[in-house]
Amino acid sequence: MFKVLSISLLLCCSLSFLGQIPEFTLDNPLNSKKSTLYSQHKFIMERSRTYVNNKVVKIEWLEKFYSNVKDSLESAKYESSNFEKAYSEEIKVSKNALTSITALKKELATVNVEKDNITLFGSLTSKSSYKNLVWIIIFSLISFLLFFLIKFKNSTRVTKNAIEKLKEIEFELEETKKKARIKQQELMRKLQDEINKNS
User: Fold this and answer.
1) Which residue range is the domain that position 165 belongs to?
2) Total domains present in the chain
């Protein structure tokens, strides 16, 4: 019986000493702001006592852990709301950027159309059509110029020929006038001679 009594006494003393072990605040992650919830839970599970397959946990540890979980949830909610605000602002910015990009694309398309086209007589004409039209006008003007130069050359040649023929005809006319005058004078003399003879 002495053995049972000594074992019970030893057991009681050891239990009373276990209850009086001071907590190390340096190793306690419940008081640290930088510790994670996982490390705090691990600390509680390791430092709590087991009683009939149950853990006996100090109430102040549970309250501190609950407070830390609550703070973590509130900070997560705050970060989530900030993220949602930032996300909605980014969506607004991206929508504005998208509308400005589409407006810029439309403006670029109109500028490209205006760059590739030329306004001619109030209507847009492509540059290639404009170039073709200009070349057609240039070739037409050159052909008209050549046509009129050839016509002018022909007309000057015809005019020179006509002037030469006119001079020849005038010369022949003068010659015939001289001959006619001479004949007339001869006839007048003969007539005068006949008049003088008959008188």
Assistant:
1) 125-198
2) 2
- pLDDT tens readout for residues 131-174: 898 999 999 999 999 999 999 999 999 999 999 999 999 999 99
pLDDT, tens digit, 9 for 90 and up, residues 65-96: 778 888 888 888 999 999 999 999 999 999 99
Does one domain contain both 84 and 111?
Answer: yes
Residues 95 and 131 in one domain: no
- CA 41 – CA 66 distance, rounded (Å): 10
- The amino acid sitting at 136 is I
> Is 41 within 8 Å of 65 (Cβ atoms)?
yes
Among 16, 26, 17, 64, smallest CA distance to 44 is for 64
Tens digit of pLDDT for each residue in 31-51? Answer: 776 777 778 777 777 777 776
For residue 111, being part of any structural domain is answered with yes
